[in-house]
Amino acid sequence: MSDRDYLPLSATLVKTLTDKLYEKRKAAALEIEKMVRELIAVQNYEQIERICKILSEHFVLSQNGNFRRGGLIGIAALAIACGREAQRFKSYLVPPVLQCFLDNDPKVRYYACESLYNIAKVLRTITLSYFNEIFDCLSKLVCDLEPTVKSGAELCDRLLKDIVIETCTQFEVIAFIPLLRERIYVRNAFTRQFIVSWVSLLTSVPEFDMVQYLPEIMDGLFHILGDPNPEIRKSCEILFSEFLTILKTSQVQPDMFEDMTRILIQNSQSSDDLIQYTALHWLREFLNMPKCHQVLLPHSAGLLSAVLPCFSYEDDNHMTITKMVEVLKTQIQSGASPSRIIALGWVHHLFECLQDQMASHIDVLFPTLFRVLSDPSDESPTSVTTAYSPPLLRKKGSKQQHQYTTEAVLLVLQVFALISTSNRTNTDRNYNDYFTKFIIVLMDLFRTDRSLLEARGSFIIRQLCMLLSPEDIYKTLSETLANEPDTNFASIMVKILSSILLTSTELHDLRIKLKNLQTIESADLFVCLYKTWCHNPVALVALCFLSQNYDHACTLVQLFAEIEVTVDFLIEIDKLVQLLESPIFTYLRLALLDVENNQTLIRALCGLLMLLPGKTDAFHVLRRRLECVPNFIDKFTSIDKRLANLSINSKEKETINDPRKNINFDELQQYYLSIQNRHIDLKKQRYRYAPTSDGL
C-alpha cells in the first residue's frame, strides 16, 4: 500500500506505529488518540471510520507481526478517544481484536487482551453483543502457557463480569447456555475453574434465574466435580449447594425434575465418592419435596439401584458405610458451610436408620462432631461469588453464615441425642454410656473455651433439654460439676443452668417437679442440684425459692453476711429480684398473703432487700412488693409467737407422708459452707500469686 492509502495517518505515524519498540508504538497510539479527539470535536465521523477501517483491516489483520501489535494498541487508543461515540464503530473494534486472541505469537495474544480490556471499558454494555465470542476466546486463554497472556485474560474476565452484573437486565442468558453446555465438558483445570466462576456469578443474581437451565449443565458440573484439583472440587461443591438451596424455594416445572433425576441416578453410580455422595444427597432432597413425588415414581427402580449399593459391605468399588463415614467426616472437618450441613444431615440420617451399623463409627465421629460445636469459622458460604456479587448480596454473607452455624450445631445435638438413646445395655436407664461421656466432654469444652460458653452455652443446653429429658440433663450436669476443681467455672455454669431453669419454657415440667417435691425421686433431684448449686449462693437461694423451702432460703440469706459482697454478687441478687416478679414465681408472691405461715419467706426477702443498694430499681421493686404484705409491720413485732405457731404446724405436717422430711437441711448447710470455704481458699491463692501493680 502507498502512503496515500493510509491517510489520514501520515507515513511517519504508520512507520512509528509498526516499530519493533513498544515505546515508539505507544507514542504513535497517543498521536492517534489526539487526532481522533480532534475529529470527534468537529464530529467528523467519516474520517474516524476510515481510520478504524485502516487499523482493523491493514494492521490488526495483517500477516506482519509488528503491524498486528501496532494495530491492536492503535485501535484501543482510538476507542478511548471516541468515548461514548465508540459504539458507532463497534464492528471495527471488537471482531478484529478477537481474531488475534488465538494468534501464534504470545505477544500478539497479550496485546489483544490489553486492547479488548480498553475497548470494553469504553463500550461497556455494547460489549455484551459479542459476549459469546469473547467468552469462548477467554475460556481458551485462561489456560495459555504464557503467564502474561493468562494474566491479561483474567483481567478481561473480571471486567466482563463487572459489566454483566451492572447491566444484568440486558444480558441474554438463554443465548449463552448453548455455548456453556458445550464448553463445560473441557478437561483443563483452569478452564473448569473459569466456567465454575461464571456459573456461580450468574447463579448469585436472581434476575438470571439459572435454575431453569440447570438440567442442561448439571451433567457437565458433575464432570467438573470429579476434577482431581481440590479447589475446583470445593468450588463446584459450593455451587451445587447453592443450586439446591434455590431449587427448594423456587417454582420449577416437573419435567425439569425428571431430567435432573436421570442425571442424578447416573452420577450416583460414579466411582468418585464426592460425585456419588452429591448425587445421592440431591435424590434424597428430591424425595423430601412433595412436588417431586409424582415425577420420581417412574424412576423408583433407578433410585433403588443408586442407593442400595451404597450400603453394601462387599469389598468392591462401591461406597460402603465406612467409606461414607470417612467422606462425611472429611466434609464436616474441612468442607464449606453448605456441604458441612449436608454432611451432618447425612450423619443424622444414618444414625436414625442404621443404628446398629453406625455403632462402630461413634468413636470416630465423636471428636469431629464436638469440633463443630466450637467452630469459630467465619468462612462465607458465598465466597466464590461475593467478588462480583451486587452489594446487597454481599451484606447477606454474615447473616447466612450465622444460619449455617446454628443449623450445624442443631444437627450435631440431634446426632448426639440419637447416639445417647441407641443400643442401651441397661434397660433401667434412659440413656447409654455415651450420654454421660457427652456431658463430660461438653463440660471440658466449656471449661477450656469460655468464648463458646458465653456465645452458645445457653443455646446448647436448652436444645439438649428439648431433645432429651431435661431432668436427666440437669442431673448429669449437676453430678459432673459436683466435684469440679475450677470453682469459678462451676459458679458460672450454675448461674447459666439456674437462669435456664427459671426462664425456659422447655423446663416447665422440671420446675413443677422441683416446686412440689411430691416424690422421693424429686427430693433426690433437689439434693443433687443443691450440692452443685452451692457454688453460686444466689442461684442456691433461687432454687430454694423454686422448691418452696423458704426456711432454708432464709437461713442461706442470713449466711450472706459471711460472703464478700461484690458488684457481680449484687447484680445476681438484682436479677433474682426481677425473676421473682415474673409469672414463674406467682405462687411465691401469693404465699406472701399467708403471713402467719410464711414468716421465713418474708424474712428472706427482707434480707435480700437489706443487701441491695437503696438507689437501685430492684430495691424499690422488692420494697413495694413487701409493702403489699398484709399487716407487714405488726406481724414482725410478734415474730416469736409466729415461730411458735410454725413449730406446731410442722408437727402436724410430720403425720403426712412428705418427701421433704427426708431432706437433711442441716447436712446440706454444712456442705454449702464447705463449698464456700473452698471458693474463699482458692480466691486467696489467686490473690497470693497475682502480681502487684509495682511488679513485685
From TrEMBL:
Q: Does the UniProt entry include the keyword Phosphoprotein?
A: no
Q: What is its main location?
A: membrane
BP GO annotations: phosphatidylinositol biosynthetic process
Mind listing the UniProt keywords for this protein, alphabetically?
Answer: Membrane, Repeat
Where does the record place the Vacuolar protein 14 C-terminal Fig4-binding domain? 451-629
HEAT repeat residue numbers? 93-129
User: What subunit structure does UniProt give?
Assistant: Forms pentamers. Component of the PI(3,5)P2 regulatory complex/PAS complex, at least composed of PIKFYVE, FIG4 and VAC14. VAC14 nucleates the assembly of the complex and serves as a scaffold by pentamerizing into a star-shaped structure, which can bind a single copy each of PIKFYVE and FIG4 and coordinates their activities. Interacts with NOS1.
- The name under which this protein is listed is Protein VAC14 homolog
Q: Could you tell me which species this protein originates from?
A: Rotaria sordida
